[in-house]
Amino acid sequence: MSQEATGRKPLSVGDYFKNIWETVTSTVAGMKITGRYFFQKPITIQYPDEMMVVPERYRGIHYLEQDKCIECHACERACPIDCITMETVRHGKELEWISFTVDYQKCMFCELCVYPCPADCIHMGTEFAFVTEDRSELNLDLLSYKGMSRDARIRKTEAEVKKAAKEAAKKAKAEAKAEQATEEKGTEGEGDSSDA
Ligand code: SF4
Ligand code: SF4
Question: What CATH number has the domain spanning 62-141?
Answer without folding.
Answer: 3.30.70.3270
